[in-house]
Amino acid sequence: MEDDTMKQINRLAFENGRMRFLIGEAIERMISAERFLESREKMCSEVLRQWGDLIDRLQEVIEDRASL
């Protein structure tokens, strides 16, 4: 492969890893926030369901990409 192509592949691989790390960190903080809000009954049940669905979808993205 040409040098430019390898540089682009390396950059994309780095960015992919970086985004996966940031999504994982966001998931952890969202779970923590969810527990906090649930304990104080500040979220209605529909919002909690939507929040949980978002966390699940983000986790699926991380897990699906890890198996590639």
Structure description:
With 68 residues, the chain is mainly α. The chain has one domain (3-66). Helix content is 87%, strand content 0%. The chain has two helices and no strands. The chain has helices at residues 3-39, 45-66. Helix 1 (3-39) runs antiparallel to helix 2. The chain is elongated. The model has no long low-confidence stretch (mean pLDDT 85).
Q: What's the pLDDT, averaged over the residues? A: 85
Number of helices: 2
Low-confidence stretches: none
The percentage of residues in β strands lies in: under 5%
Query: What's the gyration radius in Å?
Result: 17 Å
The helix fraction, in percent, is over 70%
| Overall geometry | elongated
Helix and strand composition category: mainly alpha
How many beta strands in the DSSP annotation?
Answer: 0
Biggest β-sheet strands, sense, barrel = none
**N-C termini distance:** 22 Å
- Secondary-structure element series: HH
Number of discrete domains: 1
Brief description of this entry?
This protein is mostly helical. Helix content is about 85%, strand content about 0%.
Please supply descriptive tags for the structure shown above.
68 residues; mainly alpha; 2 helices
